[in-house]
Amino acid sequence: MTSEGRNRAGHHGAEMCRRLLLSALAFLCLAGCGNGERQAAVAARIGQIDAARLRAHVESLTSGGPRSPHNLPALRHAERYIESRLASWGYRPRTEIVRTDAADGAPFVNVVAEHRGSREPTRFVELGAHYDSVDDSPGADDNASGVAAVLEIARVLATAETPLGVRFCLFTLEEDGRDGSRAHVRSIRERKDRLEGALVFEMIGYATDAADSQATPARIPLLFSPPRTGNFVAVVGNLRSGGLGNRFERAAELYVPELPLFSANRIGAWFRDALRSDHKPYWDAGYRAIMLTDTADFRNPNYHQPSDVADTLDYGFLQGIARATAAVLLQ
């Protein structure tokens, strides 16, 4: 090859490198712009979750007193309220029979509704909360707070695209051996549903900045040492569910950075007190699930008391948890 040929080849090679570099930069720019646009869209959507609406749900659900098998009018009101709200946003709610021994002759039921995914419509993430309460409590935090968050997320997602399907599950009889969620998990196993995982709300409305307001079942330095101020949401997962817990934590940090959280992700199954809600039947069946909670009686003095009323909740805190959860479902 002559020197002129070598020069031409060198020039051609440099030009190719320049074009490749420009293409790579353009791709990165477009990817960055795309991510920014997606994040802005998610932020705008979850910004529609409204504290006043959350409070209105809690007030309606607690208006009839305890929602238990011994106060069936209040329990039936909750069922009808959930179904009517979901239907008003365009969903087609259905019921799952859990037990048939109610004194009024009607079955105890879960209420379920589905939002079709845009990318993988046959795969689902479930969002759940129990709507019953114990006999002696109107159950504002336990667990009208969780139901309110499910309903408000369902409203906001009704006109949104989610990559996977979202199944909204409102369980009955959690306070009676988790009968509702156990029946539901049996049904998804029988149908062989493609379940990606479940996010379960269990008491998510009580927060306080008072010093030493947070108790804990244990403190293990460097491994499990919750804050001593009860103003955070706890993310509770077993080892199998760690990835789902990570997704919630990333979404909270990105979209709701003001929301304090404590991670018991991957290690939740070590603690007996972390096995008391509707996520446990998922764990028992081998499904991924996390519980999001204000830690119940480790913080809230109104736990299972007549004083668990709507006025005791922090609706800004509840709003933050709902927004972070909705962000998980939108991504």
What labels describe this entry?
331 residues; alpha/beta; Aminopeptidase
How would you characterize the overall build of this protein?
By secondary structure, this protein is an alpha/beta fold. It folds into two domains: 1-46; 50-330, Zn peptidases (Aminopeptidase). The protein contains eight helices and eight strands. The chain has helices spanning 3-46, 51-62, 72-88, 140-157, 179-191, 242-255, 280-284, 315-330, and strands spanning 94-99, 108-115, 120-130, 164-171, 194-202, 233-237, 261-264, 289-293. It has an eight-stranded mixed β-sheet with strand order 1-2-4-3-5-8-6-7. It is globular. The N and C termini lie far apart (56 Å).
CATH class of the largest domain: Alpha Beta
Q: What are the secondary-structure elements, in order, as H or E?
A: HHHEEEHEHEEHEHEH
CATH topology of the largest domain: Aminopeptidase
The CATH superfamily of the largest domain is known as: Zn peptidases
The amount of beta strand, in percent, is 15-25%
Estimate the mean pLDDT confidence: 92
Low-confidence stretches: 1-13, 22-31
Radius of gyration: 24 Å
Number of strands: 8
What's the architecture of the largest domain in CATH terms? 3-Layer(aba) Sandwich
